[in-house]
Structures are given as C-alpha cells and as structure tokens.
Amino acid sequence: MITYNFHHKKHYKIQQYSKKILYTSLILTTAFALLEYIGGIISNSLALLGDSFHMFSDVAALGFSLIALIYSAKKPNKHYTFGFVRLEIIAAFINGLALIIISIYLLYEAIMRLYNPRDIDFKTMLIISTVGLLFNVVITIILTKSLKKEDNLNIQSALWHFLGDLISSVGIIISSTIIYFTGYIVVDIIMSIIITIILFRGGFKITRSSYIILMEGTTLNTTEIYEKISEIEGVANIHEFHIWHTDTNETNAAMHILLNEYSINKDYTIVENIKILLEKEYGIEHCFVALENTSFNKH
C-alpha cells in the first residue's frame, strides 16, 4: 500500500530570531529592574522603587511572551492537533489587557493628584526618566527589528509595554523641565493623562486584534467572499461557511458545497477554483471544501 504525505500546514512556528530577541530583552529588563530596586533601597527613593515595580511588570510581560513563543514551536500531538501557536495570541491578549489596566490606574492617579498635589523632586525625576529613556529606546529598537523579520502579535504586545515606558520617559523629561522653570506642578498631571491615552489606545488595539483571533473571527468581508464563491460555475449552494484567523499570519476557510451536477473531473476542478480564488484574492492558503450530494448526504 502506498502512503502519501500531502499535509499543507505545519501548525507550528519556528521563530529563532524572535526568541533570541525576547531572551535578550528579558535579561536586560530584569537587570535594569533589579538595578532600580537596589538603587531605590540604598537611596531611599520611592520614585526609583515605584519605577522598578513598573519594570518588573514588563519582565512579566516579556516572560509570558517568551513562554508562548517557545510553545508555538512545538509540533501538534494527538490532543492538540492544531499545535500551540494560539498561545501567542493568548499572551498578546493578556499583555494587551495589562496595558489597559495600567492606563486606567494611571488615569486614576492623575485625577487624584488634581485634588492632592505633591511636591516633585526634579533631580530624581530627571535622572530616572533619562536613564529609563535610553534603556527603553534600546529595547524598542530591538523589538521593532524583530517584528520586521517575523510578524508576531505577541511581540507587538511586548513592544507596546516598552513604547509606553519610552513615551512616559519622554513625557516626564518634558514635564519635569517645565516644572523646574515654571513651578506648575499641574503639567505633570496633564502629561500623565496624555501618556495614559496613548497607552490605552495601544492596549486596546492589541486586545481587540487578539480577541478577534481567539473568538475565531475575521476582519475579512465574508459576505463578499461568499458571493464570489457562489458565482463560480457549477456551485449551487454553500453552507457551513466559516472563515477565521489562527494567528496574525494565517487565515482559514471551511465550507460545504452543493453542485449543479456531479462528475469526478468537474468536482475537483470546482474545488480547485474555490481554493485559487481564496488564495489569490484573500491570502487564504488553508482551506477545507467538502462536496455534498443530496442524493447521498442527508440535509
């Protein structure tokens, strides 16, 4: 008996470059967070301690992203026939939610400070934000380069954590300088609100994209796709029609088709025409088309 291996999709992703980038980012971020924590204890600076805990949240986000990336490289097994690629999306969803929660908390703190203004230590504020800016610039560049080589929603969610920190550092430098020369402490609150809005938008975008994938949804126009398949010669009816995203790179389609008439040569030609349409016009490479005949299949 002759056996063939015609499986079209591997259902796993080998992303060595992204893995190296995440390892490097995780080590650097952990080292910087520990440095800030130790420095905060030695100098008795609450600002340093507070920022170190913020950095530890970035460490957690990177760690979770790395675990998801490692698991996505595992091959499918008898229990997980689609593999573990979806873990990347779960990591992105959690990181996106974390960004939204952080932004809401920052907004709450900004509102509270409107009613209870606090004195600000300009030197400490400027030193922390400058060092943090340099660090976040390096990490942001590293993660951005990774995205150019391997598109990954999981890496995008980690990147937004550091973009938030980078924007925060720039905002703190600007506001601390203005406060130093004018004494207007309210500038710090206004800058915090601006940073919060930017952070919230990034978190919402990541969460929304990952939510659509987790719910097996699609951003494609399914009505248009359905109509174009219906126009293919020989197609009488389409049902059990589904299109969904597995991750940011893969879209799947599945459907049952009834034909006007049945013959072996025509059947395979129609199926192939459907697959060509989906791949060329919508980038859908993974497609399942089941042909049904009312003479044999119950409806």
UniProtKB/TrEMBL annotation:
The keyword Membrane applies. Residues 222-292 form the Cation efflux protein cytoplasmic domain. It comes from the Bacteria. Gene3D superfamilies: Cation efflux protein transmembrane domain (1.20.1510.10). Keywords: Ion transport, Membrane, Transmembrane, Transmembrane helix, Transport. It is a multi-pass membrane protein. The chain crosses the membrane at residues 21-42, 54-73, 85-106, 126-147, 159-179, 185-204. It holds the Pfam family ZT_dimer. GO terms for molecular function: zinc ion transmembrane transporter activity. It is found in: Membrane. Residues 23-215 form the Cation efflux protein transmembrane domain. GO terms for cellular component: plasma membrane. Its main location: membrane. NCBIfam families: CDF. Belongs to the cation diffusion facilitator (CDF) transporter (TC 2.A.4) family. SLC30A subfamily. This is Cation diffusion facilitator family transporter. It comes from Gemella morbillorum. The lineage of its organism: Bacteria, Bacillati, Bacillota, Bacilli, Bacillales.
